Amino acid sequence: MNATITSQQIEQFQRDGYVVIKGILDENELQTWREVVAEAVQQRLAEKSGMQNQDADEFYKNVFVQCLRLSDTHEGIKKLVTDPELGKLAATLTDVDGVRIWHDQALIKQPYGNQTAWHRDTPYWAVHSCKTVNMWFTLDDATLANGCLWYLPGTHLLGDYRLVQIGSNMVDLFKVYPEWRSIEAVPAPCPAGSVVIHNGMVAHAAGANMTNKPRRAMTSVYYPDGELYVGHPDTLPEVYYRHLNAGDRLDDDRYVPLVWHSNEETKS
């Protein structure tokens, strides 16, 4: 994995809230990711665990096939998304000492799948930090035609943690932040084997898939070590939240493992 990053890319991430790194996976690594993700998704859809969206309303289940927290049940996914190189990359972009993984998910926009409305990620989660990092790995070329990501640059520095759900109305986010309509949206197309990394607070969307082939992506989310529980549960197992109170540290390695910390690198 080529997880190196330039000072210019760090600057762009901190200014705009996102950055594209092409060629982070070589051909062999890309094939491994494709095979591991396909297997994990097939298992998740078969088990009917609720950690997928195919029981959702008719619109949302056709936005993409969404399978959450695959690393809980698939060792191959766990190995991929807890790679210390990814943790170090997230920490470098956000200038923190260490990061934990919040969750992972496969997002497969099926042929002629619906658009993904404008939204922000962090308000969904039980950790509210301005330094959450979402890594979106392209398993297929992400294009304007098949539903690549779009961004409203700089919005990670604006707004608050009010949640605007992904629904059928593309512009619901602008009802909460009407001033953002003046920001010009920027697409982030990139070839397979790339990663699009964004701050969890930046506004983003994806177009419909107007092709007859799927657009596959695998994501992993990281947050700074030491962050606190905001008081409402999210995608983590219910057993974890059972004894958590608002303000408690989210640092149980059984559920949110430490992926990288500068202290551990110094020891090695």
Mean pLDDT: 96
* Largest sheet properties: 7 strands, antiparallel
- Full CATH superfamily name: q2cbj1_9rhob like domain
Query: How much helical structure, as a percent, in the residues?
Result: 10-25%
The count of β-strands is: 11
Quaternary structure of the protein: single chain
Tell me the name of the CATH class: Mainly Beta
How are helices and strands ordered from N to C?
A: HEHEHHEEEEHEEEEHEH
Rg (CA only): 17 Å
Distance between the termini: 20 Å
Query: Helical segment tally?
Result: 7
Descriptive key words:
11 strands, alpha+beta, Jelly Rolls, 268 residues, 7-stranded antiparallel β-sheet, 4-stranded antiparallel β-sheet
Task: Please give the structural blueprint.
Layout: H1 7-16, E1 18-21, H2 27-47, E2 65-68, H3 75-81, H4 84-94, E3 98-109, E4 116-119, E5 133-138, E6 149-151, H5 172-176, E7 186-187, E8 195-199, E9 204-206, E10 215-224, H6 238-241, E11 258-261, H7 262-267
Antiparallel strand pairs: 1-8, 2-3, 3-10, 3-11, 4-9, 5-8, 5-10, 6-7, 6-9
